[in-house]
Structure formats: structure tokens, C-alpha cells
């Protein structure tokens, strides 16, 4: 009996021995994920708090964060479908991940979209809008990226810089996208001391976007999704 349980745990946390050797791929169990997230519980329940996981695997942390945020969205906004959709998209758009193995990237995106869809369906059943799901998919393609979190580039011969999109809600349903290289975001962002979010009167670092997009209604985001891995 114990062996079967252990095997189940291993199956959940380890895919193959070789992947552990090559990439240190051991996924964190749900219990540990929740215990760790509880250390920053308030942030996990703030709809627009930004989370970036630089070696996100298949998304064990990110999935749980999204569930927590969507529970809040549901409690506060489910009486009004458009409000729910805006805040659910805001919750999703502030979750970021980088992962070196392509299959994990895709699984992570699929799991997050699955959670998003589950909550959405649960609230609105047949009234759900395909545009909203497409917007969620578009954002996930931009936020969960294939990359090497050490070099901050794609792990292929092209070695392209990892570029993240910042999404900001403006005037209700409009959304603003600005792209930044991960290197630029991190270069002047020490864990301690002055940083982008400091409000202590320190010198703040303002990163420069590499692309700036016109305002768009969030339900139109997925209209021409050409994002690829
Ligand atoms: C210990 S696992 C943790 C996965 C996930 N954070 C979790 O807790 O379930 C480490 C993950 O980092 C990925 N990884 C290893 N080196 C990496 C790198 N340089 N950049 C990005 N991801 C990397 C592995 O493929 C693996 O999925």
C-alpha cells in the first residue's frame, strides 16, 4: 500500500530519471505549494498581484495562484459577467512563467487555461464568450514562455531574448500591452533596496519597453493570435 502511494507521488513529481539528471525536474507537491503560498497569502489573493516563476515546470505554483485569485474574482464579481471577465483576465495576465522544456511550457499553459475555463464555465455555463477564452489563451502564449532563466534567452541557436508583456487595465474594458526584455527588467531590480515598486523615496528604476501597443478591448486580444512557442 505504501509503495503504491509513493509511486503515485513520484509519478506526480518526476517524469523520468533522465529529466531529473538533465534539468533537475522534480515538481513540487500540492501540499508544499500551498504551504509556501500561504507565506504570502495576501498577495496570492490580490487579483492583480504579479507573480513570475523562472523555472515553472508544468505550473504547480502558478495553477494554485490562479485558483486563489479566481476564487476572489468569483466572490466579488460573479453577479456581473463583464466585470467577472475583466477581473478574471486581469488575474491571469499578472501570472508569468519561464521554463526550459517545451513540453512543460505547453502543459503549463494548458493547465492554466483549464483552470480559467473551469471557473468561467462554472459561473456562466452556456453564456461564456469564445472571445474571452481566446483572450486568455493569447495572454498565456505571451506570459508562459520557453526560455532559459539563467541566460534570459531562448535555449536554441537563435538565443533570442526573453520578452514579457505587461498588461494594464485602462478605462474598464481597455487593456494596454507593453513588452520588455526580461534582462532589462532584472538588471536593476535587486531583491533589496531601490526597485520599480519602491515607494520609500528611493531612486526608482523605470525599464524601457521594446514594444508599445495601442489600447485594445480585452475581448479582442485573441483575434489575431500568431504567438508561438
Ligand atoms: C525542480 S523543477 C520545479 C518545477 C516547478 N517550479 C515546481 O515547483 O513544480 C525545476 C524546473 O526548472 C526547469 N529548468 C531547469 N533549468 C532551467 C533554466 N535554466 N531555465 C528555465 N527552466 C529551467 C526544469 O525543466 C524543471 O521543470
Through-space gap between termini? 41 Å
Count the E strands.
Answer: 7
Q: Gyration radius, to the nearest Å? A: 18 Å
Unreliable runs: 1-11, 193-198
Percent range of helical residues: 40-55%
Q: Report the order of strands and helices.
A: HHHHEHHEHHEEEHEE
Compounds present? S-adenosylmethionine
Which overall shape is indicated by the principal axes computed on the Cα atoms? globular
Number of discrete domains: 1
Overall average residue pLDDT: 89
Largest sheet geometry: 4 strands, antiparallel
Count the DSSP helices.
9
The proportion of strand residues reads: 5-15%
Helix- and strand-based class? alpha/beta
List the helices and strands and how they pair.
Blueprint: H1 2-13, H2 17-23, H3 30-38, H4 41-44, E1 51-53, H5 60-77, H6 81-93, E2 95-99, H7 102-124, H8 130-143, E3 144-146, E4 163-170, E5 174-181, H9 182-187, E6 211-212, E7 216-217
Parallel strand pairs: 1-2, 2-3
Antiparallel strand pairs: 4-5, 5-6, 5-7
Helix pairs in contact: 3-5, 5-6, 5-7, 6-7, 6-8, 7-8
The structure holds S-adenosylmethionine.
Key phrases:
229 residues, alpha/beta, four-stranded antiparallel sheet, three-stranded parallel sheet, 9 helices, 7 strands, 14% strand, binds S-adenosylmethionine
Amino acid at each position: 500500500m505504501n509503495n503504491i502511494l509513493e509511486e503515485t507521488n513520484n509519478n506526480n513529481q518526476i517524469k523520468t530519471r533522465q529529466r531529473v539528471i538533465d534539468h533537475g525536474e522534480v515538481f513540487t507537491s500540492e501540499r508544499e505549494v500551498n504551504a509556501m503560498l500561504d507565506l504570502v497569502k495576501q498577495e496570492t489573493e490580490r487579483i492583480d498581484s504579479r507573480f513570475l516563476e523562472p523555472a515553472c515546470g508544468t505550473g504547480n505554483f502558478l495553477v494554485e495562484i490562479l485558483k486563489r485569485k479566481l476564487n476572489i474574482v468569483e466572490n466579488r464579481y460573479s453577479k456581473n459577467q463583464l466585470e467577472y471577465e475583466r477581473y478574471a483576465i486581469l488575474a491571469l495576465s499578472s501570472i508569468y512563467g519561464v521554463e526550459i522544456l517545451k513540453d512543460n511550457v505547453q502543459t503549463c499553459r494548458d493547465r492554466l487555461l483549464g483552470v480559467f475555463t473551469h471557473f468561467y464555465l462554472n459561473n456562466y455555463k452556456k453564456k461564456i464568450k469564445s472571445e474571452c477564452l481566446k483572450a486568455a489563451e493569447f495572454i498565456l502564449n505571451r506570459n508562459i514562455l520557453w526560455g532559459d532563466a539563467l541566460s534570459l534567452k531562448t535555449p536554441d541557436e537563435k538565443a533570442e531574448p526573453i520578452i514579457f508583456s505587461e498588461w494594464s487595465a485602462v478605462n474598464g474594458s481597455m487593456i494596454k500591452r507593453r513588452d520588455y526584455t526580461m534582462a532589462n527588467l532584472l538588471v536593476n531590480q535587486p531583491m533589496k533596496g531601490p526597485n520599480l515598486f519602491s515607494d520609500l523615496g528611493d531612486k526608482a528604476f523605470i525599464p524601457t519597453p521594446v514594444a508599445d501597443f495601442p489600447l485594445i478591448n480585452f475581448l479582442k486580444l485573441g483575434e489575431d493570435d500568431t504567438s508561438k512557442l
